[in-house]
Write a structure and sequence with these properties.
The complex is a heterodimer.
Chain A lengths: L4 E3 L2 E4 L5 E6 L6 E7 L5 E8 L2 E5 L7 E4 L6 E5 L8 E8 L9 E2 L3 E5 L1
Parallel strand pairs in A: 2-11
Antiparallel strand pairs in A: 1-3, 3-8, 4-5, 4-9, 5-6, 7-8, 9-10, 9-11
Chain B lengths: L8 E5 L4 E6 L8 E7 L6 E6 L4 E2 L4 E4 L5 E6 L8 E8 L14 E6 L1
Classes of the chains: A mainly beta, B mainly beta.
Chain lengths: 115, 112
């Protein structure tokens, strides 16, 4: 069964550094998402992306965050200048369409640790 | 967004059924009811969804109340692998994309 894959599984970065988290969504999917989960807390929506544009973003997704689909297979989340509070699990997801009856398929996440 | 309410945790014995309730009294007529689960150290995993009728798939069944103000996810024979946090999420029709709003979910413990 096709999967969403995320790399790296664990990223350790110094505060203030830029970090790029990478995802390969399922190949025939058109909608892409990033979520995060701070340790012990709920999974939180960050951003959705369709047709090379952000379709929705949360309050968390401020100017320090950006997303890109640099080629036909990868979907990336960039954090420009990391803060301690950015430490979390980051999950990428994709869905075939954006319809309310479409399931989202998640990767197993990247654990981001900011020192 | 319409809110869902779930118990914090439930316990079950292996090989027995598990019924996970979810209340969503402010659901609107076009909201779909989705269930996801999150196994330890993994990303969320889609389980099932429905609108009005009961639904079955290989993982679970979803029973939706006639007034749609509540639903129940049924795991027919719990295995140790079913130990996870189960999330009941309402999905609204939107112009583009469909973010999932996760609550605290129900943590299911399965005893051997």
């Amino acid at each position: 069964e096709p999967e969403v894959t995320q790399t790296p599984s664990h990223q350790v970065t110094q505060m203030g550094q830029e970090v790029i988290l990478r995802c390969v969504p399922i190949s025939n999917h058109l909608y892409f998402y990033w979520y995060r989960q701070i340790l012990g807390q709920k999974v939180e929506f960050l951003v959705s992306f369709y047709n090379n544009e952000i379709s929705e973003k949360s309050e968390i997704f401020d100017d320090q965050f950006s997303v890109e689909r640099p080629d036909g297979s990868n979907f990336t989340l960039k954090i420009r200048s990391t803060k301690l509070e950015d430490s979390a699990m980051y999950f990428c997801a994709s869905s075939r369409s954006g319809g309310v009856n479409q399931p989202q398929h998640f990767g197993d996440g990247t654990r981001l640790s900011i020192l | 967004d319409a809110k869902t309410t779930q118990p914090n945790s439930m316990e079950s014995n292996e090989e027995e059924p598990v019924h996970l309730p979810c209340n969503h009294s402010t659901i609107s007529g076009t909201d779909y009811i989705h269930w996801y689960r999150q196994l330890p150290s993994q990303g969320p995993e889609y389980v099932i969804h429905g609108l009005t009728s009961n639904v079955n798939n290989r993982m679970a069944s979803l029973a939706i109340a006639e007034d749609r103000k509540s639903s129940t996810l049924i795991l027919h024979r719990a295995t140790l692998r079913d130990a996870a946090v189960y999330y009941c999420i309402l999905c609204m029709i939107k112009a583009a994309g469909n973010k999932l709003t996760f609550g605290g979910g129900t943590r299911v413990l399965v005893k051997p």
